[in-house]
Design goal:
The complex is a heterodimer of chains A (191) and B (223). Chain A has seven helices and seven strands. Chain A is of the alpha/beta class and 191 residues long. Chain A has one domain: Rossmann fold. In chain A, helix 4 runs parallel beside helix 6 and helix 6 packs parallel to helix 7. Chain B is α+β, with helices and mostly antiparallel strands. Chain B contains six helices and five strands; from the N terminus they run αββααβββααα. Chain B starts with 16 loop residues before the first helix and ends with a helix. In chain B, 25% of the residues are buried. Classes of the chains: A alpha/beta (191), B alpha+beta (223). At the A-B interface, helix 3, helix 5 and helix 7 of A face helix 4, helix 5 and helix 6 of B.
Chain lengths: 191, 223
């Protein structure tokens, strides 16, 4: 897909699987966050890799205010850390707890202010540590269906070649675009 | 004692007996299971001994029986040869044995005219061992692919995270608990990756193909 196509119409919800080289996944997270905010959407970050406290610091270093996004954190409890309560964060015991993860997504989406919303899932590749690829594919299908019904956009981050051709083909049937992060221009809006 | 049924070959005339003897010997010794079918009635008119051992039915049980729903899974009116007019040359099919189990076979059907009447000569080669080996190969590839998927890419991401962690420690901007949490996440992840690899290796060695999703099977067949 070229950069122009990726730009799309920010008024419509869009679902995108964004692929990057593994070493570029953290950078992809930052860039996607900035682009979501720039497009006027409120981001809901689902993290299965970085604890909330660390994520807040990483975003702050990039000039992203903690008041501008919501987080579902599936690793603080998993690491034995303290889950500091907050109006913008929900904790899930561990990344394999898909039931609670699904509930947390539903609840936080309802809690978020009216307006354009976008989920950023970081990352599908790390989720695969905790659940088999078949289960991951079913869960992502469930999330995507939920997002489509509520007109919420979604960006699923994934390491390139981190999905087997079968899952990739399944995901291509339920997301709007599969995009190579390295091919997206810096000035391109992904939503 | 009931009279033994006569097959098509036993019904040959005396004049034909020389060639019949030769044909009968070949028919009985050939290592391919053979059914001779009357296509008009879909009835079995002859079988060779290997067909008996392949199906588990005796010759007497087979002779005169209707082929569909008996040894052939096709329903009445859906015979692949006479109703659907499909070419059947070494294609993978299943036959139903005496225990009701489906046996994978390579099937070929040829039309033959005997004494002015048309018959179907159906030959079957049991490919159970071949299918078993194919399933085992599928399991090995599927579990190897899943192992790589669930270990390699996450490890590559973790490698980048460790580099980022080193930078965080050096910067002094992150407290000890924030560093510990990230290290603990990765320690837990590494333990989980090792468990995954052990599980997948066990399943691959056992050749367990029952958990392989149909989509992967289709992909495997296509490639």
């Amino acid at each position: 897909m070229d950069a122009q196509t990726v730009a799309g119409d920010a008024a419509e919800s869009m679902l995108c699987l964004l692929l990057a080289r593994p070493e570029n996944v953290p950078e992809m997270n930052m860039l996607v966050m900035k682009k979501i905010l720039k497009s006027g959407c409120t981001p809901l970050v689902v993290t299965v890799n970085k604890p909330f406290k660390v994520l807040v610091k990483l975003y702050e270093k990039e000039g992203i205010s903690p008041d501008s996004y919501y987080v579902i954190d599936a690793v603080t409890q998993y690491s034995g850390g303290v889950c500091t309560p907050g109006s913008r964060v929900k904790y899930v015991t561990n990344p394999s707890n898909l039931t609670d993860l699904g509930i947390a997504i539903t609840e936080l989406l309802k809690k978020m202010p009216v307006g354009k919303k976008c989920i950023m899932f970081d990352s599908v590749s790390m989720l695969l540590i905790h659940i088999p690829s078949v289960t991951a594919s079913k869960f992502l299908h469930f999330v995507v269906t939920k997002l489509k019904l509520t007109d919420v956009s979604g960006v699923f981050l994934c390491a390139e070649k981190g999905l087997d051709p079968v899952i990739l083909s399944q995901m291509s049937s339920f997301v709007d675009h599969i995009t190579d992060f390295e091919k997206i221009g810096a000035d391109t809006c992904i939503l | 004692m009931p009279e033994k049924k006569a097959g098509l070959i036993e019904g040959a005339t005396v004049e034909e007996s020389g060639s019949v003897d030769l044909f009968k010997t070949v028919f009985e010794r050939i290592q391919t299971a053979i059914l001779v079918i009357d296509p008009a009635a879909h009835r079995i008119v002859d079988v060779n001994p290997l067909m008996e051992s392949l199906t588990g039915f005796s010759r007497d049980q087979l002779l005169g029986s209707t082929c569909h729903g008996f040894v052939c899974p096709a329903r009445f009116g859906e015979c692949p040869v006479t109703d659907l007019h499909r070419d059947t040359l070494n294609i993978e099919r299943e036959i139903i044995n005496a225990n009701g189990k489906r046996v994978p076979v390579l099937k070929t059907v040829a039309k033959a005219e005997i004494d002015g009447r048309e018959y179907l000569v159906e030959s079957f080669t049991d490919i159970t061992d071949h299918k078993r080996a194919e399933e085992r190969q599928l399991a090995l590839i599927a579990y190897l692919s899943e192992s790589i998927l669930r270990a390699r890419k996450p490890l590559e991401i973790m490698q980048t995270d460790f580099q980022q962690l080193a930078g965080q420690v050096k910067s002094g901007d992150y407290d000890a608990e924030e560093i510990r949490m990230q290290l603990q996440v990765h320690a837990n992840n590494l333990r989980q990756i090792l468990t995954n690899i052990e599980d997948l290796q066990k399943k691959a060695l056992e050749g367990r193909s029952d958990e392989i999703p149909p989509e992967f099977r289709d992909f495997f067949k296509r490639t």
